Amino acid sequence: MPATAAAPPPPDQAREIFAERLPVAVRYAELLATTGISHGLIGPRETDRLWDRHVVNCAVVEVLCEADAQVVDIGSGAGLPGVVLAIARPDLRLHLVEPLLRRTTWLEHAVAELGLDNVTVHRGRAQEVDLQAPVVTARAVASLDKLVTWGFPLLAAGGRLLALKGKAAASELEQAQPVLRRHGVRSAQVHVLAEGTAAGPVRVVEIVRPGPGRAERAVSPSSTTG
User: Fold this and answer.
1) Which of 4, 156, 136 is nearest to 65 (CA)?
2) How many helices, marked H, and strands, marked E, lie in the chain?
3) Res. 1: pLDDT tops 70
4) What is the pTM of this model?
5) Strands 223-225 and 188-193
6) What pLDDT, on the 0 to 100 scale, is given for residue 226?
7) Phi and psi of 206, rounded to 5°?
């Protein structure tokens, strides 16, 4: 295995979020910086910003996950955000869905090495797996209209799609209105997390699958800050 010295040290923000789980997060960062790069899961130029741009950027999303929830991460790739959430929140049960063999093989090795007994890796497309959970996550996978089409069958009624998006999150949500209306969506918003930090702002579009058990409000590209 390549040397792990390439992984930068964790910033204070990572220490705060991961707390006693920090050693596991550090080992994950080392895997990303070595075999993650050699297997083509992330680019070699990402090494210096592994923590802020990737690990912590994903970890802050844990505040949107209810206790003891099952989470399906579609297009998991290098485990962003799925593996990160599993490290930060051992109470969560993560299902990582990824169609490419080389990526699922890497994920399985990473999960085993990190000792993450709350993670299951599934090879396949979101449309092909037989899973259902209250939360579906996705990062840098597809447009919102596609994520809704792929993610809603995996969500229980009233479940939430959490899509990590960039600066255009609000406008993407606005553009997705026709698809949301076709699916009967009445609750959607943009959460803005970690503002004023090196890892932020992190924009997460939350779209609720229609169903009982959750209060609904009219769809609009509104924002909340956390």
Assistant:
1) 136
2) 9, 8
3) no
4) 0.91
5) parallel
6) 57
7) -105, 120
DSSP-derived pairing of the beta strands 202-208 and 70-74: unpaired
Q: Which of 124, 58, 113 is nearest to 89 (CA)?
A: 58
Assign a CATH topology to domain 64-225: Rossmann fold (3.40.50)
Put the strands of the sheet holding 155-165 in their side by side order. Answer: 119-123, 93-98, 70-74, 133-139, 155-165, 202-208, 188-193, 223-225
Q: How far apart are CA 77 and CA 212, in angstroms?
A: 32
Cα atoms in the 13 Å half-sphere on the side-chain side of 1: 15
Q: What are the φ and ψ backbone dihedral angles of 209, each rounded to 5 degrees?
A: -70, 130
pLDDT over 70 (residue 6): yes
Q: Which value, in Å, is the radius of gyration of the alpha carbons in the chain?
A: 17
How do residues 110-150 score in pLDDT, each as one tens digit? 999 999 999 999 999 999 999 999 999 999 899 999 999 99
DSSP string across 127-180: TT----EEEEEEESS--HHHHHHHHGGGEEEEEEEEEEE-TTHHHHHHHTHHHH
How many whole angstroms separate alpha carbon 176 and alpha carbon 73? 21
Pair 39, 106: CB distance under 8 Å: yes
Token reading at 156:
């229980």
**By the 8 A CB rule, do 160 and 94 touch?**
no
Q: Are 192 and 223 in contact (CB under 8 A)?
A: yes
